[in-house]
């Protein structure tokens, strides 16, 4: 029986190594990245020997010294935080602004568990209709044509834009597909064309207008709304920026190097102040096959540095479309791994691949406006020992939304980050012990890789820096990080927060050792970095940083919670996405909790006496990760991604029945949560947003 064979395959699968991730997650989410050799084998070791010279030369401020917040710069014309909400006073005398709820205990329930006093509802599930005429979901009769009009699988990034008083535009991306729990009797060795094409249609992004319910946080999709859209693995995308038309991007199907079919593995993203969404193509490598059979042209280093399969791919898409077979179309793999930009306000717009932001396994594309009005975009490259990147535009953000900023991201400078600790290397013991100055902290530089017209990397043209960004960054001494994921600017205090999910190979044999920015050996619970751009300007080329959290069980001495009383801290493991509420509290979602409970969403005060007191707000169902947190005055929204994705779970016998219960199939879904018994404007619970995320840049002439 197909079912028993799959179980056997799963038994034979390697033990989970990515946190508490199941082998299914490893297999489908990132192509078993953790079982493969770390792609970054460059000689780019931590540059501890230049610490002293860098510190003395730069004379940088540390994070703690940089004090000005959004309030200080708002109202000064085009400022760093022109979109910041009313800056809420960080008055902690009364307790915890925005966090007046009792944290939940870690949970293993097959449910979304929220604090007492909060209610929840499902907004939309995998397969629910979006476009006019799309049918209701029937997992036994799914087709690609149906899926193309329905909500996709494994929702990850989640963002909203106000549309009118009663409606918002919801933008969600769909990272990947879990075929063994999507399709009845799925045979991984012999997927059918229909299954493959359903999977193509279940990837990508969804734009869905939702109607807000008066008096609570419920959101109802408006099926068939003129703005509703699906982007999939077969939609047309346009390449913009310096790599447009590059010889590296030309294929049999596209001799121009301008047009790409589809987007793959979209992970974290961000709403821009000019009203678009940026979404990072992450583990795109896993969909391509036969990297070892590439003839001429593409160097093997370009295959291995991105972890592209040398033989068959997991999903066998190469059997159904040559573009996934590198032996036939070697350049197709170079057309994925970009940050894509979509305009949710224009249903006729062509989505863009913004080549100026480089090609990596992008996690996030979060934007903020520099003091002089230019756009700044941060993006992590989510792989063990990979890097953090920043783009600074040449042009200034203009009023007028997407149209007025259509080429904003096509000219500018791409940087990669180098972190330098300020404590002696001998004091970083790998066990999380604070160095004698009391902090894992230091300074950093944004090392320029290229502008749109000039490369700063020896041996690389501009287009080569952008297409082979990892290889270029290896050459300039970027700091190897513990899986940089979401990175986002706090609109209240102006600092930048980055989740580093984990890296169990840090400091192990043959791998890069600990450094002050990645201070734990075999870092299995990850950490959160707090950064401050010099002069509070997002366009700065230097920054200060400190580690805010070393995650784990607070009873574990290798953990650190910004000096908070450990008895007040919720256990937290594998931070992934970050966001902020209107008070400037940091919210963190997790992926791969290794503490025996399910993943969750956590809030952390960053100022005052409660700084560092991690509080768990919710827990997600069996096998799921928490994604796309969106925290506003009215409600909290999350994506529940890959429920039921545990070892041995199948369509016939899934390990989760969320959200529909009974013996139903698990369905990745968007959830909305609100505080009961309070009008939306009168909540004491999670409060409102987060500057650059939901709002368009105001017209200064208005
Ligand atoms: Fe798709 Fe790095 O998480
Ligand atoms: Ca230090
Ligand atoms: Ca993620």
From TrEMBL:
* Name by which UniProt lists this protein: PhoX family phosphatase
List all Polar residues biased stretches: 644-653, 672-682
Region annotation (Disordered) ranges:
643-702
Record SUPFAM superfamilies: YWTD domain
Cross-referenced InterPro entries = PhoX, TAT_signal
Q: Which one Pfam family would you cite for this protein?
A: PhoX
**Where is coiled-coil annotated?**
none
């Amino acid at each position: 029986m197909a079912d028993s064979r799959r179980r056997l395959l799963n038994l034979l699968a390697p033990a989970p190594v990515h946190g508490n991730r199941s082998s299914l997650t490893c297999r489908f989410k990132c192509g078993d990245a953790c079982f493969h050799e770390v792609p970054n084998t460059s000689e780019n070791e931590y540059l501890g020997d230049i610490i002293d010279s860098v510190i003395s030369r730069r004379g940088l401020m540390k994070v703690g010294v940089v004090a000005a917040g959004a309030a200080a710069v708002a109202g000064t014309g085009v400022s760093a935080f022109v979109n910041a909400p009313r800056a809420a006073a960080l008055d902690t005398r009364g307790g915890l602004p925005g966090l007046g709820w009792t944290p939940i205990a870690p949970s293993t329930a097959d449910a979304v568990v929220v604090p007492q006093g909060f209610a929840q509802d499902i907004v939309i599930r995998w397969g629910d209709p979006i476009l006019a005429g799309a049918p209701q979901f029937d997992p036994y009769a799914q087709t690609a044509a149906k899926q193309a009009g329905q909500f996709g699988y494994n929702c990850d990034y989640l963002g909203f834009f106000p549309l009118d008083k009663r409606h918002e535009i919801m933008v969600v991306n769909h990272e990947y597909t879990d075929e063994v729990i999507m399709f009845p009797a799925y045979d991984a060795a012999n997927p059918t064309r229909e299954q493959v094409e359903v999977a193509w249609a279940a990837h990508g992004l969804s734009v869905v207008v939702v109607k807000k319910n008066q008096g609570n946080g419920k959101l109802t999709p408006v099926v068939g709304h003129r703005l509703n859209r699906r982007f999939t693995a077969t939609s047309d995308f346009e390449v913009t920026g310096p790599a447009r038309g590059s010889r590296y991007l030309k294929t049999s199907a596209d001799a121009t190097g301008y047009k790409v079919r589809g987007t793959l593995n979209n992970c974290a993203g961000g709403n821009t102040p000019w009203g678009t969404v940026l979404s990072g193509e992450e583990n795109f490598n896993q969909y391509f096959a036969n990297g070892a059979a590439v003839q001429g042209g593409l160097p093997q280093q370009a295959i291995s540095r991105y972890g592209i399969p040398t033989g068959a791919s997991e999903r066998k898409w190469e059997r159904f479309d040559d573009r996934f077979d590198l032996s036939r179309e070697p350049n197709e793999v170079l057309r994925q791994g970009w940050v894509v930009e979509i305009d949710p306000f224009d249903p006729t717009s062509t989505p863009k691949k913004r080549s100026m932001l480089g090609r990596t396994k992008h996690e996030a594309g979060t934007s903020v406006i520099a003091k002089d009005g230019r756009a700044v975009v941060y993006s992590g490259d989510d792989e063990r020992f990979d890097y953090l990147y920043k783009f600074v535009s040449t042009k200034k953000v203009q009023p007028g939304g997407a149209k007025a900023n259509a080429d904003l991201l096509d000219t500018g400078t791409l940087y990669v980050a180098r972190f330098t600790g300020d404590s002696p290397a001998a004091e970083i013991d790998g066990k999380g012990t604070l160095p004698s100055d009391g902090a894992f902290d230091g300074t950093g530089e944004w090392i320029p890789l290229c502008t749109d017209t000039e490369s700063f990397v020896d041996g690389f043209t501009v287009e080569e820096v952008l297409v082979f960004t990892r290889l270029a960054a290896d050459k300039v001494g970027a700091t190897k990080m513990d899986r940089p994921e979401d990175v986002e600017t706090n609109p209240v205090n102006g600092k930048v927060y980055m989740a580093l999910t984990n890296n169990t190979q840090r400091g192990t044999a043959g791998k890069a050792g600990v450094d002050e920015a990645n201070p734990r050996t075999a870092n299995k619970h990850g950490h959160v970095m707090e950064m401050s751009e010099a002069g509070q300007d997002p366009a700065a080329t230097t920054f200060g940083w400190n580690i805010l959290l070393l995650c784990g069980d607070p009873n574990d001495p290798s953990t650190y919670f910004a000096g908070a009383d450990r008895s007040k801290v919720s256990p937290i493991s594998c931070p992934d996405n970050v966001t902020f509420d209107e008070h400037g509290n940091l919210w963190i979602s997790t992926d791969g909790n290794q503490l025996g409970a399910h993943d969750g969403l956590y809030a952390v005060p960053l100022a005052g006496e409660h700084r560092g007191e991690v509080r768990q707000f919710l827990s997600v169902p069996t096998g799921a990760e928490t994604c796309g947190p969106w925290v506003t005055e009215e409600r909290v929204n999350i994506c529940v991604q890959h429920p039921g994705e545990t070892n041995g779970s199948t369509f016939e016998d899934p390990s989760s029945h969320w959200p529909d219960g009974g013996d139903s199939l698990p369905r990745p879904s968007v959830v909305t949560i609100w505080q009961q018994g309070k009008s939306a404007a009168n909540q004491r619970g999670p409060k409102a947003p987060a500057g650059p995320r939901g709002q368009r840049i105001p017209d200064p002439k208005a």
